[in-house]
Amino acid sequence: MWALAFLASASGAWCGEVVIRLGSQLTARDGGWHLGEYVSIQGSRRDAMLAGAVWIHVRGDEIRREELVYLLSPLKGLGVSVRLEMPRRVRVISGAESLEARLARLSRWPWRVEVLGDPSGELELPLGFRDGYPFVYMRDRGQRRKVSLRWHQPVVLARDVMKRGDVVSWERVVLGLGEKRGFEELPSSVDEVLGRRVRTPVRAWAVLRGSWLEGSSGVLGGQTVELVCRVGGVSVSAVGRSVDGGRVGDRVRVMNVQTRAIVTGVVEAPGVVRVEGGDL
């Protein structure tokens, strides 16, 4: 096991230290994901959320130490001290057939649904199951047991205290990785909150909620949306789950819930994303 530490300060002060540990292999969904969805990060809640939001795009079937060091380097600007403990290469195994992946498909959730318990047995969904539900049932040998779930998602953090009437700007927010508890929709990208006024006081490093802000976003991250594609006089639509959030006119990424493909489109109206090129 190799250990690498690098330190940085912002305005001469530390936010704290996080310790990031990876073994020789890990199981994750295909494509890209946020570091904290699958990797152990120890530190204060705030610093772990900042480090956890780092986006990982796996090339091939491994993560190299030098690549991860580069991806973590922006944390220096936030004053976060990082200690990275990992081998030179970490093998990444596809989790496409796991119970977690199945729950994500059933709930149309674009991020990780972490199963906190023994996943063996036959899945039994509670009545009204959807994203944010705290548990599912597993049935094995005639016995039914409850298994808890954790719904990972990107969240927007306030970098300082915000007063009622303040306008949200780039300098005052940062993306972190948190979790959804219950059924409230949380903004999952900075674009969703920019330019909106705060309607209630917000403490520093709090997770911003849409209900705390005036106005509305065209699309919220993690929201079920209508994907629309128009070619000539023909219009085709599909059900999608937004990965990003944004206002009308913004470009966002959306997952087609049937094919699981990630496409990019423009927010045409609240809950509607237009995809160009004829490929949903």
UniProtKB/TrEMBL annotation:
InterPro entries for this protein: Flagellar_FlgA, SAF_FlgA
Domain of life: Bacteria
Swiss-Prot/TrEMBL GO biological process terms: bacterial-type flagellum assembly
Pfam families: ChapFlgA (PF13144)
Domain Flagella basal body P-ring formation protein FlgA SAF per the UniProt entry, residue ranges: 154-275
Keywords: Cell projection, Cilium, Flagellum
PANTHER family documented for this protein: FLAGELLA BASAL BODY P-RING FORMATION PROTEIN FLGA (PTHR36307:SF1)
Name of the protein in question: Flagella basal body P-ring formation protein FlgA
